[in-house]
């Protein structure tokens, strides 16, 4: 939701909360959160211009409709379209070495000068293609066409209207610059342009790039500190600008006393840090500095906070959480058949019995669903790290913040495969009828979200963008599911190795190696898949409007301070429509035919569209293994389906797509 301009007053403080509503009713309101509006002028970094021409911009034309005795390109000229009885295409490649590493490319335009007319020329329209494989002028025109991507970057546009900024940025980020192919659009007559060898340097092709130099990151914002028992948890919003393209932002976190003495220092790759070993009798402030390879940003400091003792001590509550997770694992594996059994078998079962009972149907249902397929959870474990225990809103409430790493092992035909999840969690306890009770387990990032008062707020919230999300998903292309909701057993599966060692499968390799990267959105699954397709599979950008299904790109705007992405990049249904309708990617009809690097889309029963995406990392022993940004980073298709089997909203459709990466 975005509040209209003019409603809020600069400097005023507001309280807000939200609730979710459906046709049958609404959830309770969330806790109130405070927001002070601070309108800050955006920093305006200096924009620079780089013009590449002469030796920095190579252009060559070739005939595409003959095999032998093809005519040579006229000296000093390049051609596009039908000329002298032949079809011509032009290859252009830029040497980007003068562009400083880490620069934000905010725009780029290619310009050509006509050599066959001087006044009253009709502007030619082009289809532009990125090259999927390398080509050189010593090769033929037919080889040039074969080297081009199947789908165009832009179609039927004049060069002055074609924005090449995202393409240039991708060349710098990926180191994958094989050049562009220009073909005349439609049936219009061909045209001649001056080439890089033209006698008049002003008439040679030019690529003009607008960019912002890299720098250290800006200041972090909105540091929020939760003081616990002998420790504190700090959260903050990342800088509006990370300072450099393709750079990860890190954070140095220092804890200071009132007189400026630094008593603790930690490094973090995410906007969150837990510091323990503090004194409950002293007050502290947190100082956070963002950094990249270009330097350190300004220091941002929080207000003072004083740790406070928790009745019973923090170790007791940590034990409660550990025992609760252990009991839940026993239900998963069948070591305890019911939640009541698991609670009775634990020394602290009374603390979490009610919460376990609320989860029993889903846990038992997942276990039984796998058992019907001859699979089982052979083990389940959970480890806690970065634990902070603090008082809640009153002395009868305690809250545990912790990073929880959960591992489950699925056994198939006597062979074990591990699933893995790492999440920041919040566990809320209260005293009920004189006894401690675990009330809730929640995602800590969502529960502690602080909206930025700057332009970064929009980027914090947006993950889905489909304006036509109410349109039903296409029928007929999903896998056939059996009565239990699993893919129909359709034959002997392919046997492949894990994606971490698959040579040449960049999409799955990138996803596997980068599965622990920070989430950019609250729902980050599709953004993660798109990054795997882009950085790992080198899938090419498609030009067009941000909301259009035929386009797919990310670029920088606001002087390079914010990364903008198409809806097809960040929303599952939009990406599904893009790869199936505009890249004409293959849909896989049998689960046994899934290959490493395929993309799997999921649709839940209550939703009209596909709303989750993951990458296939292996298909072995009849099981498809996935890597994703989801509840578990490493999981299996059966595990995902089983998790929702006995819940009110089970998975209804599963679609496997073999994306064309060029």
Unreliable spans are 449-473, 492-504
Oligomeric status:
single chain
Number of strands: 33
Radius of gyration: 29 Å
Structural class estimated from helices and strands: alpha+beta
Q: Biggest β-sheet: count, sense, barrel? A: 7 strands, antiparallel
Describe this structure in words.
The two termini are 36 Å apart. Strand 29 and strand 30 (612-620) form a beta hairpin. This protein is globular. It is α+β, with helices and mostly antiparallel strands. Strands 6, 7, 8, 10, 11, 12 and 13 form a 7-stranded antiparallel β-sheet that branches. Helices cover 18% and strands 34% of the residues. The longest helix has 24 residues, at 349-372. It is built from 12 helices and 33 strands. Helix 8 (506-513) packs across helix 9 (525-536).
Helix and strand layout, with pairings?
Layout: E1 13-16, E2 21-22, E3 25-26, E4 33-36, E5 47-52, E6 57-63, E7 77-83, E8 86-94, E9 104-111, E10 126-130, H1 141-147, E11 154-157, H2 165-174, E12 180-184, E13 191-194, E14 206-212, E15 221-228, E16 231-237, E17 250-257, E18 262-268, E19 272-276, E20 284-292, E21 295-301, H3 314-333, H4 339-344, H5 349-372, E22 375-391, E23 397-412, E24 415-432, E25 435-443, H6 444-447, H7 456-461, H8 506-513, H9 525-536, E26 554-557, E27 562-565, H10 567-570, H11 572-582, E28 586-588, E29 599-604, E30 612-620, E31 623-627, E32 634-636, H12 637-645, E33 651-658
Antiparallel strand pairs: 1-4, 2-3, 5-14, 6-8, 7-8, 7-13, 8-12, 9-14, 10-11, 10-12, 15-16, 16-19, 17-18, 17-20, 20-21, 22-23, 23-24, 24-25, 26-27, 28-33, 29-30, 29-33, 30-31, 31-32
Helix pairs in contact: 3-5, 5-12, 8-9
